[in-house]
Amino acid sequence: MTWAPCQPERAAPTCQRAAHSQSDNLHRREFLPPSEVAKADMDSTKAEEVLLQSVRKAGAAVPRKRAVGRLVMHSMVMFGREFCYAVEAAFVTPVLLSVGLPKNLYSLVWLISPILGFMLQPVVGSASDHCTCSCGRRRPYILGLGIIMLLGMALYLNGDMMISAFIGERQKQQTWAIIITMLGVVLFDFAADFIDGPIKAYLFDVCSHEDKEKGLHYHALLTGFGGALGYLTGAVDWGQIMLGYSLTSEFQVIFFFAALVFLICLAVHLRSIPEVPLRYENEESKFLLEVTESYKYSSIEEGIKNGCLKSTCTEKKAEAKPGKCAVVSHTEDQRRMTLKSLLKTLLNMPSHYRCLCVSHLFGWMAFLSNMLFFTDFMGQVVYHGSPYAPRNSTLYLSYRKGVEMGCWGLCINAISSSAYSYIQKILLPHLGLKGLYFIGYLLFGLGTGLIGLFPYVYSTLALCSLFGIMSSTLYTVPFHLIAEYHREEESLKLQDGEQAGQHGRGKGIDCAALTSMVQLAQIILGVCLGLLVSVAGSTVTVISASTVALIGCCFVAFCVHYVE
């Protein structure tokens, strides 16, 4: 039997070649003596192992189905992250005011972190796509960002006490307390915003398409529970419990509980689903050449060379004739990606990715413009208080009561988000992703508009449940669409006979580009909304949120691409 040499034309799909090779092997076995048949069986087993390894390394293998417990374990980090986020939302303003932060520096605190995040998030996403750490691509970044979160939380909750232990002079003490507290807030926000991209990419790497859907719903569910528990910490008088007497302040007690919760959740997440370390194409080719060189007439081994890695032959020729055939693997190109080429990749992203990012930006601008100022809106507009009044005055006490009631509203939002994340699973087959995306924006736009028109206590608290629908939508549907886009691209490449894993855009960089819209929304709001609030009052926040959400509704309906 004559075997064709390696041809330059496009190779057939791997599975098809393997099937033809196995049928040829069976045909040849009929004419071999028993000893040769046994040897052929051993060779075939080795070759199948090599084939399986190459398919896994190329990314063509579909991850196996994951148990529900594993998906819940994977989602625990979202519980811990949102718990810490809610603690920050409840206490960061009192902390900053207590250390004497000037008003002109207040907006600076909220601008530094999103600017850094917007600039660096895609860089980290691309780096995680090509990380070759033995414990996986995403988990090293998740662990590092988790440590930075804990460091930031320790600084902004305990910075005043730490500085007072080292510096005795009152003036220097206040200055350094402001610096350390600001640094803690920036570090925490930076890491907490960053960590979402690697978490989502980790889920997409290790799960099948069906499990990705389940995983995103569990993420939203536990995000809501974590947020609800975190907001409830604002309603507890920590000074009256035993631990409160042992520690210096309630902020230390809060840090103790928040750090403990986050560490447990992070450890469970990192142990949830194992990652396969990334192996590059040139290493794989070298390995396969070493294995297959001794099998001159073996059909399955030749199938591996011709089908699995069509670059194997050409790479070998390139080593012999570097001047004539300069073959550089696609993954090596990406591995050398600079900041300039990365930004070019982001700017030249496919139109459907760009439209999804813009719709995500509208959603987060609407959501954050309401959430960042909601407790202040409750204190000033609903309860008619003033944060600038004397501490024991009626106006200031009314403002404080409104802030506390605002925390309960945010707690309702978190519980609603968890409940809706479960309801989404029921609605998805009937409404589809487009329907869920549209409804989330529409209900939020209508709800915030009604709150702005009728700022009463009980109606506002009832409408807070619509915030949760928007929150759950932002945490699930856009990332679900990213998974659909990648699935569509991989299926098209398989139809063309290419390997599914060999596409130019990694899941990490796409998740990072989507998540960076959160930072861009914060930058826009930090520059524009603060000025509007100072001129027109807190009512403008909910009206702005309603307007942007309804504009986003139109964009979601007419501009975003949905996979049929």
From TrEMBL:
<feature type="transmembrane region" description="Helical">
    <location>
        <begin position="435"/>
        <end position="454"/>
    </location>
</feature>
<dbReference type="GO" id="GO:0005356">
    <property type="term" value="F:D-glucose:proton symporter activity"/>
</dbReference>
<dbReference type="GO" id="GO:0048066">
    <property type="term" value="P:developmental pigmentation"/>
</dbReference>
<feature type="transmembrane region" description="Helical">
    <location>
        <begin position="83"/>
        <end position="101"/>
    </location>
</feature>
<feature type="transmembrane region" description="Helical">
    <location>
        <begin position="511"/>
        <end position="536"/>
    </location>
</feature>
<dbReference type="GO" id="GO:0006583">
    <property type="term" value="P:melanin biosynthetic process from tyrosine"/>
</dbReference>
<feature type="transmembrane region" description="Helical">
    <location>
        <begin position="107"/>
        <end position="128"/>
    </location>
</feature>
<keyword id="KW-1133">Transmembrane helix</keyword>
<dbReference type="InterPro" id="IPR036259">
    <property type="entry name" value="MFS_trans_sf"/>
</dbReference>
<feature type="transmembrane region" description="Helical">
    <location>
        <begin position="140"/>
        <end position="157"/>
    </location>
</feature>
<feature type="transmembrane region" description="Helical">
    <location>
        <begin position="361"/>
        <end position="383"/>
    </location>
</feature>
<feature type="transmembrane region" description="Helical">
    <location>
        <begin position="460"/>
        <end position="483"/>
    </location>
</feature>
<keyword id="KW-0472">Membrane</keyword>
<feature type="transmembrane region" description="Helical">
    <location>
        <begin position="253"/>
        <end position="270"/>
    </location>
</feature>
<protein>
    <submittedName>
        <fullName>Solute carrier family 45 member 2</fullName>
    </submittedName>
</protein>
<dbReference type="GO" id="GO:0035752">
    <property type="term" value="P:lysosomal lumen pH elevation"/>
</dbReference>
<feature type="transmembrane region" description="Helical">
    <location>
        <begin position="177"/>
        <end position="195"/>
    </location>
</feature>
<feature type="transmembrane region" description="Helical">
    <location>
        <begin position="216"/>
        <end position="233"/>
    </location>
</feature>
<feature type="region of interest" description="Disordered">
    <location>
        <begin position="1"/>
        <end position="24"/>
    </location>
</feature>
<keyword id="KW-0813">Transport</keyword>
<feature type="transmembrane region" description="Helical">
    <location>
        <begin position="542"/>
        <end position="563"/>
    </location>
</feature>
<dbReference type="GO" id="GO:0008506">
    <property type="term" value="F:sucrose:proton symporter activity"/>
</dbReference>
<dbReference type="GO" id="GO:0033162">
    <property type="term" value="C:melanosome membrane"/>
</dbReference>
<keyword id="KW-0812">Transmembrane</keyword>
